[in-house]
Write a structure and sequence with these properties.
Blueprint: E1 2-8, E2 12-18, E3 24-30, H1 33-40, E4 47-52, H2 59-67, E5 72-75, H3 77-84, H4 93-106, H5 108-114, H6 122-154, H7 157-161, H8 168-176, H9 188-199, H10 205-221, H11 232-261, H12 265-271, H13 278-288, H14 297-304, E6 308-309, E7 312-313, E8 316-317, E9 321-322, H15 328-343, H16 351-360, H17 368-389
Parallel strand pairs: 1-4, 4-5
Antiparallel strand pairs: 1-2, 2-3, 6-9, 7-8
Helix pairs in contact: 6-11, 6-13, 8-11, 9-10, 11-13, 12-13, 13-15, 14-17, 15-17, 16-17
Length: 400
């Protein structure tokens, strides 16, 4: 069996071929048609490729081995680093490709057993959509921060009146009344009529009247840093337009995420746990992938980085912390699931809610984040049990 270890970098890769006779050949190729043809010249039916995932840089190589039906193993960077670690530190692209090739000689059976990469599945699509959703949320948050900073100069009280700046009512209020001078001569009813007409009849008039009253009262005592003809007025309007555009894109991606996720039987199982929600379930599947590949909940914990990191030597013992080696986005989704359960505690029956408040009571009195991670651990135990037994959640059967 011939083994090719490939160290992937931007635009090109270093490769080392180890033949059945243990001959070594090193070469380079670029990530284009001619470069992959060069790689193909070294490949026969008895060749396997081992390379490390490097995000977008390795995507072209991944597509090439898929379309050419080449037997390849794509290793997680952490797994590759641990397998290749040695006492001597000599890191170069050539040495890394050689070490990857040697893994095929010394640890091939272990790599073969642990290789769970799924090609062209719905989980790959979910992963892309989940990343896109998070990107849009971050972009919208950045514009909201710019908007609030501008409002501090034109009408700072609006930041206290509207806690959520991305809502349609708040954005329209920012456009129309972003400076106290714009309210001079207007009554609360006139403000309400103008704002109601602008946001359509989807928002109740009493709600609009409530916010207009607060704006009107705040304007009487407000002293902005700039005048009503400041260039900031136009900038605020532009920020509001950008936020509305992001709102539409986020809504579209959210809908697409849930549509793709519903094709998986795992979606129905996880959604059966009260408080998880369709969006968070879709995001979890996007960041964690097919969780059926894990043998137990501890492996899922390690993948998400919530497994415990313990350090003890002699009399010294460090306080337990989580490893944080896994996907931070997956951890964020699970903590948001727990938050959602806590927000809806009066509407749902969920054993995780009781466990959270048990940890908060004396003599435990755990910190909020500690209790959240503990609940995430129990959530993973519940998810893995339901998946393994192929059943939906039953509150009466859960361990309380």
């Amino acid at each position: 069996m011939n083994i090719i270890g490939i160290d992937v970098s931007q635009g090109k890769s270093h490769a080392t071929l180890i033949t059945e006779d243990y001959e070594k050949k090193s070469f380079q190729f670029e990530h284009n048609k001619s470069g992959f043809n060069t790689l193909k010249n070294y490949i026969d039916q008895n060749t396997i490729i081992i390379f490390e995932t490097t995000g977008n840089y390795s995507a072209q190589l991944t597509r090439f081995v898929e379309e050419e039906n080449i037997k390849a193993y794509e290793l997680n960077p952490l797994e590759a680093n641990m397998r290749m670690s040695s006492l001597r530190r000599n890191k170069t692209d050539t040495n890394d490709s050689l070490k990857l090739a040697l893994l095929g000689v010394t640890q091939f059976l272990e790599i073969q057993r642990s290789h769970h990469k799924q090609m062209n599945s719905n989980f790959d699509i979910l992963h892309i959509l989940s990343l896109r959703y998070r990107q849009l949320i971050k972009c919208r948050t950045r514009i909201i921060n710019y908007l609030r900073a501008s409002l501090e100069l034109t009408f700072p009280e609006l930041n206290q009146i509207f806690k959520v700046a991305s809502e349609k009512l708040a954005l329209q209020a920012f456009r129309m009344y972003c400076h106290p001078d714009f309210i001079v001569g207007l009554t609360i009813n006139e403000m309400t009529k103008r704002l109601y007409k602008a946001v359509s009849n989807r928002i109740h008039k009493d709600t609009i009247n409530y916010y207009c009253s607060k704006i009107w009262l705040a304007a009487k005592n407000s002293y902005p840093a700039v005048k009503a003809d400041s260039v900031y007025i136009g900038i605020i309007s532009d920020y509001c337009d950008e936020i509305e555009t992001y709102n539409q894109k986020i809504k579209q991606v959210k809908k697409q995420l849930i549509q793709v996720a519903t094709t998986s039987e795992l979606f129905k199982i996880i959604c059966s746990i009260p408080g998880t929600g369709q969006l968070n379930t879709a995001l979890l599947l996007g960041f964690a992938g097919d969780i059926r590949r894990f043998d137990n909940y501890k492996q899922l914990n390690a993948f998400l980085g919530i497994d415990l990191n313990r350090q003890q030597s002699g009399k010294y013992q460090k306080a337990d912390t989580i490893n944080r080696r896994g996907t931070s986005q997956g951890r964020a989704v699970e903590t948001e699931m727990i938050r959602s359960m806590l927000r809806n505690k009066n509407k749902i029956q969920n054993h995780l809610i009781g466990y959270y408040y048990k940890l908060k009571r004396p003599p435990y009195s755990k910190h909020d984040k500690v209790a959240l991670i503990a609940c995430a651990n129990h959530l993973n135990r519940t998810i893995m049990y339901l998946v393994r037994t192929n059943q939906t959640y039953d509150y009466n059967s859960a361990v309380h």
